[in-house]
Design a protein that fits this description.
This protein folds into two domains: 21-378, Beta-lactamase (3-Layer(aba) Sandwich); 387-523, no CATH class. Helices cover 23% and strands 28% of the residues. It contains eleven helices and 30 strands. The protein has an eight-stranded antiparallel beta sheet with strand order 3-2-1-14-13-12-11-10, with helices on both faces. A four-stranded antiparallel beta sheet has the order 24-29-26-27, with no helix packed on it. A three-stranded mixed beta sheet has the order 7-6-15, with no helix packed on it.
Length: 525
């Protein structure tokens, strides 16, 4: 059963990798410090990858370099995909957050210390289920090498049900479900089994149809056996000296076993940043990125609390949501600011666990975020509203290509006109100039580009059509060194009516009258 079909979206907004030698060198220095063999990273701003690069070695034995196409084991970043899958079913009304999970499972899960308290999906998503992760099984039941994998239902039923092969007194905490927070990989694997039980297909198939295919994540996979081994980064640990960990399997795979590359994973992050894919509704994303639980524990002074699957951290004063991942020979980070629309992904295949590996990765994360925020300070997306019929419009940002139907895709073809004493048909918008443009219906457009802080506009004697820069500017702040502006002759146009204006707004056009030829200057603070 397929419950959620999303429109096709392939690698959202790849404004491909602006080079930055200083950032590259910083990352290489930190890789040396942390003994990181290979790393792939990107910065995403407003849903677009504005920088990415790959470094080092994916496989030392075969001397395979890391490229943007190399897949890494994501570790616990995988949980964000698992949370997305079940929240799609929540949106479709197939499950409620506070339902007992036993309504959906093929076996019964009961905490023996509190047999009358039901465990809910909400508890699984917030790590408050009281399901304990017995670490003694992790290495014993994880399979190193390309070996057959353990069935998810078999493992979970035998771990969680009294009398099962893997069941022990360590399968549950002795506190009441919902009462405390404790991180649980087992609990998140159980979410995937709930998805399987509801939709009647494997978790892998559900994710492929409803998440990976729509986002263009064609090579992303839950299982190593489905992948090209030469295209997957080998995990390593520094002991000292490199030790190859092999490509391993874990029986709770929906918690930590997804493998993807920087290109495909950036598409997933972009979907959450802009939600252009229809992956989830805005209200659902907001619910997931709301702090539900204060875990009372601060990892590297960064963990602040948990939403649904995603967790919140504050780093350098920035409120970020995402997840990291850490396993044998793997350390990964994926976080973004929902408010600022700046995000970062870092994938590594090893390092010195007992050295500076983690602090070096966090330093790299900070450097990439700094670069993303610097880019954001110089680049912007401006939303411009227009009315049905004729409008006076402008170009408020520097863009690579100013074709009018690219900037205003809903405009009527052939209706762009500039004014230079006469009306002239145009196709390209130029910064500082105003234009008439017609639309069938009212609406809006988003224009992305480089911020304009200063704009010199040449005027001729008489009436002129102008537009401003990237921010609102009071007409009293227009610099008029030659005193050519005739007082009270700056007019806006809205819904067929001319009005004297007090402010020059981004993307809007205005009439202005000059007593002579000359220039005016618009400067934003």
């Amino acid at each position: 059963m397929i419950k959620h079909i999303v429109p096709f979206l392939l690698f959202i907004g790849l404004v491909r990798a602006q080079p930055n030698p200083d950032l590259d060198q910083f990352i290489l220095n930190r890789m040396d410090s942390g003994y990181i063999p290979g790393l792939s990273a990107c910065a995403v701003v407003n849903g677009q990858v504005m920088w990415s690069n790959s470094y080092g070695t994916a496989n030392m034995t075969f001397n395979i370099p890391v490229t943007e196409d190399i897949h890494f084991l994501l570790a616990s970043i995988s949980k964000l995909v698992t949370a997305t899958a079940v929240m799609q079913l929540y949106e479709d009304g197939e499950i409620e957050l506070h339902d007992s999970i036993n309504q959906y499972l093929p076996f019964t899960v009961i905490n023996p210390f509190h047999p009358d308290t039901e465990i809910t999906l909400y508890m699984l998503l917030t790590h408050t289920s009281s399901i304990k992760e017995d670490l003694t099984f992790s290495e014993e039941y994880s399979i190193f090498g390309n070996n057959p994998e353990m069935d998810l239902e078999y493992f979970l039923s035998n771990y969680l049900v009294l009398g099962g092969e893997f069941y022990s007194s360590n399968s549950y905490y002795n506190y009441q479900p919902g009462a405390q927070w404790n991180y649980s990989n087992i609990g998140f694997a159980l979410i995937a089994l709930i998805v399987e039980s509801i939709v009647g297909q494997s978790f892998e198939e559900y994710c492929e149809i409803n998440i990976f295919d729509p986002l263009g994540m064609a090579e992303t996979s839950w299982h190593f056996e489905d992948m090209d081994e030469s295209n997957v980064a080998m995990p390593y640990e520094w002991m000292p000296g490199w030790e190859e960990m092999g490509h391993y399997f874990i029986p709770y795979y929906p918690s930590a076993q997804l493998r993807s590359n920087i290109n495909e994973l950036s598409s997933f992050l972009s979907a959450y940043m802009g939600n252009w894919s229809g992956l989830l509704n805005d209200d659902t994303v907001e619910l997931m990125l709301t702090e539900h639980i204060d875990d009372g524990w601060s990892w590297m002074n960064m963990s602040e609390g948990w939403g649904l699957g995603w967790y919140h951290k504050i780093i350098n004063g920035r409120d970020l949501w995402g997840h990291n991942g850490e396993m044998w020979g793997v350390l990964t980070e994926m976080f973004f600011s929902p408010e600022d629309k700046v995000g970062v992904i870092i994938l590594t295949n090893g390092g010195d666990y007992f050295g500076s590996w983690y602090s070096d990765v966090i330093a790299i994360e900070n450097a990439i975020l700094d670069y993303g925020y610097e880019y954001l300070a110089l680049h912007q997306e401006i939303n411009i509203n227009y009315n049905a019929g004729w409008n006076i419009v402008g170009l408020p940002l520097e863009v690579e290509y100013g074709y009018y139907q690219t900037l205003y895709p809903e405009s009527i073809e052939g209706t762009l006109y500039s004014f230079d004493g006469n009306y002239d048909p145009s196709t390209i918008l130029i910064n500082g100039e105003g234009y008439w443009l017609r639309f069938n219906e009212e609406g809006s457009t988003n224009i992305s580009g480089t911020i304009i802080n200063e704009l010199t506009i040449n005027l001729h004697e008489g009436w002129n059509l102008i537009t401003g820069g990237s921010t609102s500017l009071n007409i009293l702040d227009i610099q008029d060194p030659d005193e050519i502006i005739i007082s009270s002759t700056i007019y806006g146009f809205n819904n067929g009516v001319y009005t004297i204006t007090e402010n020059i707004e981004p993307g809007k056009g205005y009439w202005i009258r000059a007593n002579n030829s000359g220039s005016i200057i618009l400067i934003s603070e």
